[in-house]
Amino acid sequence: MKFHALFSHSSMAEQLLVHVIVILGLSLTCTATVYTVGDTSGWDISSDLDTWVKNKRFVVGDVLLFQYSSSHTVDEVTKEGFQGCNTTNVLQMSSNGNTSIPLSKPGDRFFICGNKLHCLGGMKLQVNVEQGQVASPSAAPRAQPGDSGLPPPTAKSDNPSSVTPNSAMFIHGGIDSLVLAFMGFMATLLWLL
């Protein structure tokens, strides 16, 4: 009887339905991949960044995580600055040893080490950021086996074993969020009854 009474008030039922649809919609669209630049080597002169970037697909919403020692910086530059390792017109610069760069719009992004000799030695990275798909999270890139979450917020040390071993970590809404949304919906129903 209470269940019927709950839905006889159409405005309350409509509000509940709207909330459920919003929660489900958000849970299906919250995806991003965090890439640790250079994998275990990190952002370092010893990293083969040209090989690292191959076969990776960067989409809007992904994040580049640069981990590096105090002898390096992460400078975002123009294409011309990238090609000539020019650090005079830097778009943004970071030197904290643990820099996250969100990829917020499509297009090419260019990063170099502020030490020109390091840049000339290959310590530079170009990524092409794609718009991404409006499809379900199943179309999003998947993490490598063994990925468990974000790396600790510490600067890269001289010990490569302290750096996260895989570059792609998947943050997702997916099924976990659906289960939580369903549990919240059921709790709301029980509370209203």
From TrEMBL:
The lineage of its organism: Eukaryota, Viridiplantae, Streptophyta, Embryophyta, Tracheophyta. This is Phytocyanin domain-containing protein. Residues 33-131 form the Phytocyanin domain. The keyword Metal-binding applies. One of its GO terms (molecular function) is metal ion binding. Gene3D superfamilies: Cupredoxins - blue copper proteins. It comes from Nyssa sinensis. Keywords: Glycoprotein, Membrane, Metal-binding, Transmembrane, Transmembrane helix. The chain crosses the membrane at residues 16-37, 169-192. Residues 133-162 are annotated as: Disordered. One of its GO terms (cellular component) is plasma membrane. It comes from the Eukaryota.
